[in-house]
Write a structure and sequence with these properties.
Blueprint: E1 3-5, H1 8-16, E2 23-26, E3 43-45, H2 53-65, E4 71-73, H3 75-81, E5 85-89, H4 99-109, E6 115-119, H5 124-137, H6 143-162, E7 169-176, E8 181-182, E9 184-185, H7 187-193, E10 196-198, E11 202-203, H8 212-218, E12 222-225, H9 232-237, H10 239-243, H11 252-255, E13 259-262, H12 264-268, H13 275-286, E14 300-303
Parallel strand pairs: 1-2, 1-5, 5-6, 7-10, 7-12, 9-11, 12-13
Antiparallel strand pairs: 3-4, 7-8, 13-14
Helix pairs in contact: 5-6, 6-13
């Protein structure tokens, strides 16, 4: 068995199923677990993902609306690797190489025997289903892993619900700063499991741009900044974009110090096994007296009140610098 995984979350699923030794290639964004870092990258972005959030959004939007790919497949390398299985996705044109591009490339290369497995999760339960399906295709039992992860989430949900609380905390998760994007997909499910309620983003729907007036009208108790593809340090850099808006100072969460920045790249944006750790992060944030899952420095940080000073944090290497 020779596996090429073109999606970071799928790479983590394969590794959690105990199949790392069969992975022969990865995407340029697959950086976890560490033992796959030496493998050749079969993809590359068509532009360097540096610059401001607005410029990144402009470039990505232009490529998507022009029906152009954001990533390139290394066809020569793919032919050399001759994979028995390729894991990809067909949920998001921005997240990774598309299913259609992979299928067309395999046809051009004559790799007709390669089995393509595509994931398309929209909700948290879809992620557990993907784990079971990938396990079945790769001839291992994915049920045990999926069930264990689901039980861990359910345990947190039960504990968060067991405490006597006057009201659920109203939460807004932001996935981008400029333009402002609310959360979607599985993120509202994570908030629910951690004992909060997402008041703008809708579970199962795509993250969407919103007006600042939408955020101020929602006026959440807790604000979570989880920019897609950014680690903790890079996300903290973008706080200046939020703080530059006059509406920022009026938000309840900012006034009360209930503003948090999390590592979206490693946790919240990856629909794989570590979504459980994302629920743990949210539980620690929403209910600090009830949950403590260990050191937080590389996972999340709290932004105090109305201070203009930037937080100092340490984190993993950036995907987007």
């Amino acid at each position: 068995m020779r596996i090429v995984s073109l999606v970071p979350s799928a790479t983590e699923i394969v590794a959690s199923l105990g199949l790392s030794q069969y992975v022969v290639g990865r995407s340029h964004e697959c950086d976890y677990p560490p033992e796959i870092a030496h493998l050749p990258a079969c993809t590359r972005p068509v532009f360097q993902a540096g610059g401001t959030s607005a410029s990144i959004d402009d470039r990505v939007s232009y490529l998507v609306t022009s029906a152009l790919s954001i990533y390139e497949l290394d066809l020569k390398l793919l032919r050399t690797l001759n994979p028995s299985h390729i894991l990809t996705q067909d949920r998001c044109e921005v997240c990774a190489v598309s299913l259609g591009e992979v299928e067309a490339s395999l046809s051009d290369l004559g790799l007709v025997q390669t089995q393509v497995v595509s994931v398309k999760p929209k909700r948290l339960d879809d992620v557990w289903s993907d784990i079971r399906r990938i396990g079945k295709v790769l001839c291992v039992d994915g049920n045990a892993l999926a069930n264990n992860l689901a039980r861990r989430v359910e345990s947190i949900a039960r504990q968060s619900q067991s405490a006597v609380r006057p009201l659920l905390k109203r939460v807004v998760c932001l996935e981008w700063a400029d333009p402002l994007y609310c959360s979607g997909g599985w993120l509202p499910d994570l908030v629910d499991a951690a004992g909060g309620t997402e008041v703008i983003g809708k579970a199962g729907l795509d993250a969407n741009p919103i007006e600042w007036s939408t955020l101020t009208q929602a006026d959440p108790d807790v604000l979570i900044f989880a920019p897609c593809g950014f680690n903790l340090a890079r996300a903290c850099d973008d706080l200046s974009l939020l703080r530059s808006k006059s509406e920022w100072q009026d938000l309840r969460a900012v006034k009360t110090g209930e503003m948090y920045v999390v590592d979206g790249n490693q946790y919240f944006s990856r629909p794989g096994p570590r979504l459980v750790e994302s629920v743990e992060i949210l539980a620690e944030i929403l209910h600090p007296a009830d949950f403590n899952f260990g050191p937080r420095e590389k996972r999340w940080t709290r932004i105090e009140g109305l201070s203009d000073s930037e937080p100092t944090v340490t984190t993993n290497p950036m995907v987007v610098s």
